[in-house]
Amino acid sequence: MNIIDHPLYHPTWDILDSTKIKSHALCPRKYFWEHMVGWAANHTSVHLVFGSAIHKALECLRTKGFTDDIILESFNLFLEEYRKEFSIDEDERLAPKNPDTALKVIVAYSETYKRDNLTVIETEIPGRCYLAKDIIIHFKVDALAYGKDKRYYLLDYKTCSRMSQDWVDQWQTDIQMNMYNYLLQCQFTEKETGHVIVDGICVKKTKGREVELIRVPCKRTPTMVSVWYWNMMRKVDEIRLDMEDFLKCTEEQTVLTSFPMREVSCMNYGSLCPYHGFCSDWANPLVLLDEIPDGFKEKRWDPRKREEGKTVVKVGVVNEEKEDE
After folding, report:
1. Which residues contact 245 (CB under 8 A, 6 or more apart)?
2. Which end of the chain has less neighbouring CB within 10 Å, N or C?
3. Dihedrals phi, psi of 23, to nearest 5 degrees
4. What is the tally of structural domains in the chain?
5. What digits encode the pLDDT tens for the residues 144-200?
6. pLDDT tens-digit profile of 253-265?
7. Domain containing 250: what range?
8. Does residue 311 lie in a domain region?
9. CB proximity list for 192: less than 8 A, separation 6 or greater
């Protein structure tokens, strides 16, 4: 069966980015629920909303400067984004991920990095990384910066609730950060190429110490980026193999024989996977997809939406004919 002829087909099936690839690596069946079926838990995550709003604030801060007026403007941008989901009446309940702490983050970031020798050239840069002519990984870079050492750097902002050495160390092998190093090495000469910088923002419940900042340099040699490249090709192959198997599956089967469960991943960050109940009780989910279960909603992640109205950066094995399809 051709993929577009499948009764459940959605155009986002063909689109990949680091979020989707990580989802499949964590658990192929979770990928199935999230990105094939398109079901998501029907609640708003304060962690995601706070992180997204902080991104808006820091974008303003880094591009316009670290003056008091810009700090206030950045905070207002945070509020505008945050208030789309949460009212002022919920601020106390959502602490520390609320506007009071956000202002502390913005002020602390300004004081810490206003003399960091980096000039931001561009922010929120969408792009497509061509691993091969038919393998496109979509991305969006938080910021491209130029240092006084005459090298280019990519900045990525990450929020968390607990800072540890493990949290710091994870970024050296992270799919997204290694791809960003690949982008730098593709776009600039060896002398011009800096590295990826993760600006970690930890928001804690500790009174008086709610904000902790840490800057993590992710330096990868071309050889180690080649390791990432091989791993990515393998991961994409695994997704495509599951997709091929899925197209052969029918409602008549007793068991869904694609996108296998990775049982060691049912607990993640101390929480049970939201799809655990489905995996526990449904041998072949294809017979049960007519109605969205209570507590869930249809939600499709499409990284192409971040490209709308912007110039898209293209790196790697670019194939213009494929791109225009």
Report:
1. 257, 258, 259
2. C
3. -60, -45
4. 2
5. 999 999 999 999 999 999 999 999 999 999 999 999 999 999 999 999 999 999 999
6. 999 999 999 999 9
7. 12-43+230-301
8. no
9. 150, 151, 152
